[in-house]
Amino acid sequence: MSQKVFLWKKTTLERATGFTLIELMMVLTVISILVSIAIPIANSAIIRSKEAVLRSNLYTLRTLIDQYTADKLKAPQSLDDLVTAGYLRSLPKDPITNRNDTWQIVMEDASLYPEQTETGIFDVHSGSTATSTDGTPYSEW
């Protein structure tokens, strides 16, 4: 008789230790809903960070073009002139295209300074054809 009670208690414990299929499906459903909410938020954060890096790179390049022109009294003929002259260690990557050879340069028509002897690069833009989150093309920044 005591043997039957022991078997009964053992089967009761075995049933109580597992999860049902419904419980597992509910947990997986909740996880999938949370992931489907998090992925678009993460993607937009990545795009915003790339845009911030692009703004910073453009500001740096434009400032260095102006400094080069003021120091040398001639505008750089290519972005590599900034690296050669020591204004940059290396040409930064365009974070949208992830390349450093897609920068679109704008050549100046007239000199910025009265003492300037040679015209050259006046401005720089991203080489990407994509549109930013504010609706403007990156190539117009």
Spans of at least 5 consecutive residues whose pLDDT stays below 50 are none
Please give the count of helices: 3
SSE order, one letter for each helix or strand: HHHEE
Q: What Rg is obtained from the alpha carbons, in whole angstroms? A: 31 Å
Number of strand segments: 2
Global outline: rod-shaped
Q: How many structural domains can be distinguished in the coordinates?
A: 1
Give the strand content. Answer: 5-15%
- State the distance separating the first and last CA atoms: 87 Å
Q: Approximately how much helix is present in the residues?
A: 40-55%
Placed side by side, the strands forming the largest sheet appear as 1-2
In this structure, how is the largest beta sheet organized? Answer: 2 strands, antiparallel
Mean pLDDT: 88
> What structural class do you assign from the helix and strand content?
mainly alpha
Structure description:
By secondary structure, the protein is mainly alpha-helical. It has one domain. Helices cover 51% and strands 6% of the residues. It has a two-stranded antiparallel sheet. The longest helix has 52 residues, at 21-72.
